[in-house]
Amino acid sequence: MEEFEREVFIPSKKTQVLTSIVLGFAAYSVGTVVAWTAPAIPDLEATEHFGVLTVSDKSWIASIVTLAALIAGPITGFAIDKIGRRKTAIAIGYPFFVSWLMVAFAPNVPILIFARFALGLCVGASSLTVPVFIAEITDETVRGALCNLFPLGITFGIMNTYIFGSFMTWFQLTIVNAAVTFVYLVLAHKLPESPVFLISKGQYEKARLSLKWLRGAMLSDQIEPEIQQLRRAIDEKREVRLSAKEFFSPPVLKPNIICVSLMFFQQMSGINAVIFYTVEIFETSGSNINPNLSSVIVGLVLMISVIISILLIDRAGRKILLIVSDIGMSIALFGLGLYFYLKDEGSDPSLVESLTWLPLASLMLFVTSFNFGFGTVPWLYNGELLPSHVKGLGSGIAVAHNWLIAFLVTKSFEDFIFYMGKYGCYWMFSIVCAVGTVFCVLFVPETKGKTLEEIQNIFRG
């Protein structure tokens, strides 16, 4: 009878979905932090709330988030293993809420930058905690879809920030963002602890209670096979000790290099610089389309393209999405650079006037292409390419590298424009995307339909 119950038990998806949606609020908040500067900085300049903002002020307000996110990674990695996924997720909510209030009531630019730094710590902490948490609480039938709630949540946060920022003042927008983090903080206290974490700490009964709730099980026997499977996987991982020699062996080093390289090309596409300064790009382009409306359109396209990518990633394959993504971004950035070249170099005014649609079209193609492949696939490859016993270390290196390049690009964006001109800046990003295309063709393996063992065999040859 017990065997029959085990065989016919079908885990409920409801509690897994609801738990993932709660964590999605943190992802949404990440998107609001990333996109806030696009509508807020022009409004701050127009109202002169902090007086005249210098180029340095604006670059620090935008880029400090990525620097803080880089710092938060190692701290969060320690926290989720020490105090657990649930407590870390709850702990993130408090500074998230307080930091937004600091932004809203900052008396001067240094305090505003400090508040943005605090938000950046929350961004980095969420970027590590949420994907790990969702992956560990979901079963294999819904894991792929629910893990994509993280990039989808970020995109939704970006889009809504653009929409609200089009008709709200920077202060009103900030209060709305703070309200979202408060909702997350309240709901986070309802989260269960990850069964994987509980088993790793030897708390087997608590792990059973957590997994029963997550799977909608009435009896412990119904989830016992999964508990035993998790115990075996965790015990095997404990037995593995990674040496420096093994880390630099081809089966380990090659996938690590690919993951780090993909993160490099992801950020050197200029995505964060474009998202942070979307409204300003349209204001300086001279386009006759309302800058805030344009940014809303870009946000909508951003979200739609993420959904398309999620639907295609297990059908078309990872590698082809990366290649198409890079080609599209390269063309889009070339088009954006061409418009500013014609505008800034004194070309025929009638020609420039006839091309005022080009900035919006280029940005729409850019964000669509980015999310079509490079917005999602590099994160997926972190989980697929890296061997299980180096996944923590390898993912940490790749994510830290991602935020480091994001900081350097965002902080230097205004300097790039000053020394190279807008067109030179966008053409530089376009060339990087072209080089990224070649890299993907030559070195990135296709993993669609392959088991993790088959993927590892690629690097042993």
From TrEMBL:
Keywords: Membrane, Transmembrane, Transmembrane helix, Transport. PROSITE patterns: MFS, SUGAR_TRANSPORT_1. Pfam families: Sugar_tr (PF00083). It is found in: Membrane. Coiled coil: none annotated. Belongs to the major facilitator superfamily. Sugar transporter (TC 2.A.1.1) family. This is Major facilitator superfamily (MFS) profile domain-containing protein. It comes from Orchesella dallaii.
